[in-house]
Amino acid sequence: MAYPTSLLTEFRRWAERKPAQRAVLDHDVYASRARGELVVRSSRTVLQMWDDVTALAVSLRQLGLLRGDMVALQLPNWHEWLVTHLACYAIGAVTMPISPVFRTRDVARQLDIADVRALVVPTSFGSFDYLAMGAELQGTNAGLKVVIGVGEVPAGSSALAWHELTRLGSGPDRAQLRSDIAAGRYANGVDDPMLLNFTSGTTGEPKGVLHSTATINSVVGSAAARLELTQDETVFVANTLGHAGGFLNGIYLPLLLSAPIVYMDLWDAGLALQVIERERITYGPAMPPYLIDMINHPSFARADISSWRTARVSGGIMPHEVIAQLHRQIPTIRLCPGWGMSELSYVTCGSPHDPVEKLSYTDGRPLDPCQIQIRDELGERELPLGEAGEIVVRSPGLTAGYLGRSELTAAAFTADGWFRSGDVGRVDADGYLTIVGRSKDIVLRGGENVPVVEIEAMIAEHPRVAAVAVIGVPDARLGERVCAVLELTDPATPVTVDELRGYLADKELTRQFIPEYVVTVERLPRTPSGKIRKVIVRDEVAPRFT
Length: 546
What we know:
Layout: H1 7-17, E1 22-27, H2 29-35, E2 40-45, H3 46-62, E3 70-73, H4 79-91, E4 94-97, H5 104-114, E5 116-122, H6 130-140, E6 146-150, E7 160-161, H7 162-169, H8 175-182, E8 193-200, E9 206-212, H9 213-226, E10 235-237, H10 244-257, E11 261-264, H11 269-279, H12 288-295, E12 310-313, H13 320-329, E13 334-341, E14 345-349, H14 356-361, E15 365-366, E16 371-375, E17 389-394, E18 401-402, H15 406-411, E19 419-427, E20 433-438, E21 443-445, E22 448-450, H16 452-460, E23 465-475, E24 479-488, H17 497-506, E25 517-521, H18 534-541
Parallel strand pairs: 1-11, 3-4, 3-5, 5-6, 6-7, 10-11, 12-13, 24-25
Antiparallel strand pairs: 1-2, 8-9, 9-18, 13-14, 14-15, 16-17, 17-19, 19-20, 21-22, 23-24
Helix pairs in contact: 3-4, 3-7, 3-8, 9-10, 11-12
């Protein structure tokens, strides 16, 4: 299979080949729950999408957005997400995804770091007022030139209406600019930055990870070939497009294949089973919690999901025995494991033809362009087959670097140029990787990196907390949940989990990051220099939750 290098060119060719084919179908989960039936929010053909892309690109350019400018997208999984990304691509701007669950404090930090010029948000989604947040951010961030609302923008709002921008950009007076944009005159080059994802690691602060068309194309194309995916797929994506995995599976991969996409804007296992059955889904990425939710749902036994042939399973820690059980319970689907990270996109992937044992108990083989080694804790010596150590990687899918943080970029590599993942794994005699842990201080809750150091700093400000260690504890559904291990100033006055959750919510910490458990200890273990020994804390506390 030949893979394109320009998303804009490939999408235009798709529109020329199959203008009437449905490109995107998205579902409104809130409305579906309220009505007790599956509600389609929108359905767009390839030609309609292409016209929207060029029209919106015209308006974005006329708003003053230029090559290299950052545009933040904090949208649910709606067709407007895809249109906006391609419109940014068409004018040379950089898309910066933000998960819809993030609130003002976290969004503000990312906008500041990236020097964002435009923010695109829903006018209505759940109970949060995204337009009010946008107005607040414009008041505190001088670089944020425009907020664009998808939906009905109320009178008096400073936000611009997405659909009005699309209408204006389609006018006959802008035909020449639209033609220039359609021809790719302003589009991103293959090696230009086109995506900025934020990730948090041991520092606890958000780090901007830059990717180009070339870096993503090199590994996503290889994964599509490994999974034997074609333009005949119908791709289902329910994990948020605001994360790296959601973007790769829900934006880049379908565009690469010229394959129709079906979105859900929130996760709901029962509705997902209905979507898979009704739309005859053939491929979908699957986070382990989603799979567990589906097989445990009352309607699972009677749902016809036989069309769903292949799933790439990633995005969370999951005991391999659970994956083996899933293979037994849904034998029609090949659950192909994969490992990757924001900095590298995809690194490993299983194949539908792999033995079930490998699909169940490993994390796949390196993709053709990728090399991995298992090294000692210093990152210097390669370890023998079967021995666990830090995974280091060479890949054309590697990020161009951390935005504005050259020192972090340099520190991420070994002396001989391999990227240090911070994950611990081993490789068997057949070349299959198995993840066994992490060398970095990270909690992965349902596929989301939790900023441990930042949370610890917040909790340490609590007047009754003398010291704190935030760790991940095992969870059958999410892989890990967040646990705060506290050393108190006075053991006679404990800090309850409800009190701590309220305290952190008042500090505007994103809800998914707030600890779900609190464990109190008399004294946290420390090194001679006074640093808390997190490995010992994890080893002593985590077994209580198994």
